[in-house]
Amino acid sequence: MKILVINCGSSSLKYQLMDMTDESVLCKGAIERIGLKIEGGEENVIIKVNGDKFTYDKELPTHTDAFNEVKHILSEGEHKVVNSFSEIDAIGHRVVQGGDKYKNSVLVTDKVVEDIKELSPLAPLHNPANLQGYEACVNVVGKDVPQVFVFDTAFHSTMPPKAYMYAIPYEYYEKYGIRKYGFHGTSHKFVSHRVADKMGKDFKELKSITCHLGNGSSIAAVQNGKVIDTSMGFTPLDGFMMGTRSGAVDPSAVTFIMKNENLTPDEMDAVLNKKSGVNAVSGVSSDDRDICAAQNEGNERAILAHEMQAYEIAKFIGSYAAAMNGVDDIVFTGGIGENGVWLRSRICSYLGYLGVQIDEDINAKTVKGAEAELTHPTDKVRVFILATDEELMIAQDTKEIVSNL
Fold first, then answer.
1. E strand or H helix at 222
2. Burial of residue 380, with CB atoms counted within 10 A of its CB: 0-12 exposed, 13-18 middle, 19 or more buried
3. Which end of the chain has the lower number of beta carbons within 10 A, N or C?
4. In what helix (H) or strand (E) does residue 313 lie, and over which residues does it extend?
């Protein structure tokens, strides 16, 4: 079975074609700047096949045009990997917000599409773009090819009300669905299964804390195969500081700033989502590589940003260990989770009370894409670096649903 995974943004389309007989990647890439003018020399079409990368520029006004280009790349172009697009058995789509309605991945129907449209106010930057990807596929290949929606929020749907409810007037939950949903669920699901494999344990026997650390970051407490809490909330803004996101802030500080700076809600939203976090504290960048370089040069604000980040993450790990009454393993994944040597070390330095003592030599030598255990297999709490694979998780869910049709 061959499955195409699609992840659409408002002006981008990422794709990955997988052969599920051995879960190998036949081709992957991205189309960027959809609907935007391409300046001279700006290559917005990316193809990766057998370790080789090819790029070129092409103006593509709509997502339908972009998907037509993907169809050409996969089945017609000089780097084609199938003889006909009809060889592709199903298409799996990443959808950010499934709300209370979707607790598992689903086969797409007209009813599902309408539901996702209704949920768009909860993810206005993501759900409409995700739907554009689906509609582009329908415009090109019709409805004969089964399509599946895989939700970022679904894995977190096992959270109990005591974890997902906010202490605000209950009517806002009833009227607007304001509650914690959590995000990065596909990544947390993948690595929580992966760590069980690495430990030779049943996924449903472990108490895991999975740390997806990147420009956007979240942590999940996974007990006996179910998420009981996660750091992101109603939106991906909640939790701890990220690249440009503030994480949790006293709500009164938000209204105070709005009043004193005469900011509209949209302007304040931009401050918290795009002008805060590591970027704001360091004054250097939102890129962890730049923060590390500035820190090594003695930049005090970069040092502060990193210290704050490690401290906040360690606090979440501690709180989730308490929530589960113990922890068996801690996983670092995502761009920073897999690359952040200093951050991993600093976080773990707070966890001595759990018996965590990592091997600093292994920590320093592990590079992105590699897997490593930073502790000893006999340790009470084991710490791992694992590469996440959200596309594979989407493909696996898609395969399971389509195989049962």
1. strand 218-223
2. exposed
3. C
4. helix 300-323
Half-sphere exposure of 262 (CA within 13 A, CB side): 0
Residues in the chain: 405
| Tens of pLDDT, residues 29-57 | 999 999 988 877 789 999 999 999 999 99
Active site residue 202: no
The SS3 of residue 320 is helix
pLDDT in tens, 87-97: 999 999 999 99
Tell me the β-bridge partners of 149.
93, 106
Residue in 65, 152, 328, 397 annotated catalytic: 152
Contact 133, 6 (CB under 8 A): yes
Nearest in space to 195 (alpha carbons), one of 391, 396, 390, 382: 382
Cβ 305 vs Cβ 346: under 8 Å: no
Cα–Cα distance, 395 to 405 (Å, whole number): 16
**In terms of Cα–Cα distance, which of 330, 327, 335, 328 is closest to 390?**
335
pTM for this entry? 0.92
